[in-house]
Amino acid sequence: EKKFGYDTKHACHLVRLIRMCREILETGQVLVKRPDAEELRAIRAGAWTYEKICEFAEVEDEALNEVVKKSKLPSTPDMAKIQNIVYDMTLEFSGVTIK
After folding, report:
1. CB 4 within 8 A of CB 46
2. Are residues 19 and 36 in contact, defined by beta-carbon separation less than 8 angstroms?
3. In degrees rounded to 5, what are phi and psi of residue 29?
4. What is the DSSP letter of 23?
5. Distance (Å, rounded) from C-alpha 98 to C-alpha 82?
6. Percentage of residues in the chain with pLDDT exceeding 70?
């Protein structure tokens, strides 16, 4: 923070999470292995100014409001499906077999 005037690690996470949010809303997929990893490392090293970070966040926040309206993802999770998955995983992990 002393060197760049802001927390570059936090800025890196902010950029990554905003980009992941857009990707999830637009594609329905989570890209864990980041195609922008090199740029994120550069941000972490202080390549972006604080002003650029703030501008990016403001622009993307507005854009995401529109992206979410067009997203094909459901507005709420399928709780029954989630409960079934958790139940099955718990049984599998515990080694219990139900006939």
Report:
1. yes
2. yes
3. -120, 150
4. H
5. 19
6. 99
| CB atoms inside a 10 Å sphere around CB 5 | 10
CB 11 within 8 A of CB 53: yes
- Give phi and psi for 38, each to the nearest 5: -65, -45
> Which residue stretches of the chain are H helix?
8-27, 37-44, 50-70, 79-94
Collect the ranges in the chain with pLDDT lower than 70: 99
What is the rounded CA–CA span in Å between residue 57 and residue 61? 6
Residues written for the chain:
99
pLDDT tens for 42-62 read: 999 999 999 999 999 999 999
**pLDDT for position 79:** 97
Give the pLDDT confidence score for residue 30 in this predicted structure: 93
Using CA atoms, how far apart are residues 44 and 58, in angstroms rounded to an integer? 19
